Amino acid sequence: MSSRYTHAPAISFKQLSYLLAIADTLNFTRAAELCFVTQSTLSGGIAELERTLGVQLVERDRQYVALTPVGEETARRAQSILSAGNDLVARAELAADPTSGYFKLGVIPTIAPFLLGKILMLTRHTFPALRLSVRESQTRVLLDEVENGELDAALIALPFELGKLHALTLFDEQLHWVAHKSDPIFKGKKRPLPEIDGSKLLMLERGNCLRDHALAACNTQAGRDIEPGADLVEVSSLSTMVQLVNSRLGTALLPAMAIQGGILNGTEVKEVALDTPNPGRTIALVSRGSHPNLEFIKIQICPILRNSKPV
């Protein structure tokens, strides 16, 4: 019999999770809290892992905790191992019934307020035994969590660099240029996008993909670089941006789903008619190509998400 079966080191997922908690916190007390164990249990698990591997993974004394170089490399490999282990467990749990068990979904903030309610309603109606948990965050954070196995999939907007992740396209969506009804832009005929005044364009904070989509789409259609003004105000939500437009502080590009969801209700903000096609983005569900339930995601989850699109 091959030695790889008879002499495999006795390393547990639990020990690897302890090491990752240490890597994240560099503090044994906080790491133990994250793992819901006592500090002595966590310390013992790390010591046992070091004995098994025959190397020191963590430097520690009363005032200092750090990973050794081999500890850092082991932690990186541990993340991949735990992600694969989670996929293995998920495959086993859902082998009998793929509509049961847990499904962890991430959603970006420029989608969640307008689609999430319908997504949850349709999912609970279609798959009452499926335990769906949802996390809202920015695209880069969600994609890292999908890749690490912390999420099963993320609902995001493209284009965005995905690395090795797999994108399932759901639908295309237009971005609409809006301004206060008193803005001179509403005088006369429809406006061509190349006339957009970049100095008046309000922006979401850096890291929000809609900011990049808006600038990229406008630059492509305008044939020049559109840069926000020096007195730019960056905000974290579409609602705040609409209120700034309502205060006559600038213009904005909003997703169609936000307008259809009533974000302009009660304001004096109106859509600007363009004589060129509106810029847009593509809504997609992103998962790992190796996810054990990728076919279930494609065949069952994606139609629910498509049906959640505002009409």
Question: Could you list some keywords that capture this structure?
Answer:
311 residues; alpha/beta; Arc Repressor Mutant, subunit A; D-Maltodextrin-Binding Protein, domain 2; 2 domains; seven-stranded mixed β-sheet; two-stranded antiparallel ribbon; 20% strand; elongated
Percent strand equals 15-25%
Query: How many β-strand stretches?
Result: 11
Mean pLDDT: 85
SSE pattern: HHHHEEHEHEHEEEHEHEHEEH
Description:
By secondary structure, the protein is of the alpha/beta class. It folds into two domains: 3-92, Arc Repressor Mutant, subunit A; 97-311, D-Maltodextrin-Binding Protein, domain 2. It has eleven helices and eleven strands. The protein has helices at 3-6, 13-25, 28-35, 39-53, 69-94, 112-126, 139-147, 209-222, 238-246, 256-260, 294-307; strands at 58-60, 65-67, 101-107, 130-136, 153-158, 165-180, 203-204, 234-235, 252-255, 269-271, 280-288. It is elongated, with a radius of gyration of 24 Å. The N and C termini lie far apart (62 Å). The mean pLDDT is 85.
Topology (SSEs and partners):
Layout: H1 3-6, H2 13-25, H3 28-35, H4 39-53, E1 58-60, E2 65-67, H5 69-94, E3 101-107, H6 112-126, E4 130-136, H7 139-147, E5 153-158, E6 165-180, E7 203-204, H8 209-222, E8 234-235, H9 238-246, E9 252-255, H10 256-260, E10 269-271, E11 280-288, H11 294-307
Helix pairs in contact: 2-3, 2-4, 2-5, 3-4, 6-11
